[in-house]
Design a protein that fits this description.
about 250 residues, alpha/beta, five-stranded mixed sheet, four-stranded mixed sheet, 8 helices
């Protein structure tokens, strides 16, 4: 009996030490990950463009998805610039529409709709709503992002009318790598539904011809940049209009 007690007395300090070492190792790993992720964010073009705070970005999956999307755009070769959260007049009706990311590149203008979703995604271009399904088979509907971005595209075409032609525009729906695009049907040649890790490859495939000069890229960037620097009241009004539209659907 005494030998068992002696063994336990010897093991307990070792187990405690092992636990402490594992905890410290986990804390250091987590802290290092946080540090490097924050440093990468602070040095990014996204940070320069939006002035978004890291803690807000990392806690908001929509903002973080936009940031990760722009990281992919930074790797695209050629002359290009991107603008975030642009508010321009709607092509139809009153009010403004907000565009997540616009990539202005020598090969064209890419209007991006960022969907930082997980699960399985099902949908057709003609459908009004698409379906997101999780591992537990729970399903939820969301408005067709192709139709959503087509409104953005038409608004952008009208806003830049006289500066560039309609042929330079591409609609790109960017989903997270955490999702799987199960059954997606796209009919229009200017529409692309992809996962984020395929964004750079997709643009490279489309960038076979230079449709814009560097001067045109700069001119469009200047126009759109002004539309991203709006007052908070404008942003709040847009959010309310989106809520009304969503509840109506």
């Amino acid at each position: 009996m005494k030998s068992v007690e002696d063994l336990l007395a010897a093991l307990i300090p070792m187990l405690l030490l092992t636990g402490i070492v594992l905890f410290v190792g986990f804390a250091v790993t987590l802290g290092s990950l946080f540090y490097f992720r924050r440093r990468s964010f602070e040095k990014s073009t996204y940070k320069q463009v939006t002035q978004e705070r890291f803690l807000k970005a990392v806690s908001d999956k929509g903002i973080w998805g936009e940031y990760l999307t722009t990281r992919q755009l930074e790797k695209v070769g050629g002359y290009g610039k991107f603008v975030m959260n642009t508010y321009i007049p709607k092509a139809r009706g009153k009010g403004l529409t907000e565009i997540d990311v616009t990539f202005i590149h020598e090969s064209g203008i890419y209007v991006l709709e960022s969907k930082n979703y997980s699960g399985w995604i099902f949908g057709k271009e003609a459908d009004r709503q698409w379906t997101q399904m999780f591992k537990n088979r729970y399903k939820q509907k969301f408005y067709n992002p192709i139709k959503q971005n087509e409104q953005h595209l038409k608004s952008m075409e009208r806003f830049l009318e006289g500066t560039v032609g309609e042929e330079v525009f591409q609609s790109v729906i960017v989903f997270s790598e955490r999702c799987e695009l199960k059954k997606i049907t796209v009919d229009s040649s200017h529409v692309h539904v992809i996962r984020r890790n395929n964004l750079r490859r997709t643009i490279k495939k489309l960038a076979t011809v230079d449709r814009l000069t560097p001067a045109q890229v700069d001119a469009v960037y200047k126009q759109l940049k002004q539309q991203s620097q709006v007052e908070q009241e404008v942003k709040d009004a847009h959010i309310e209009s989106v809520k009304s539209f969503t509840s109506y659907k």
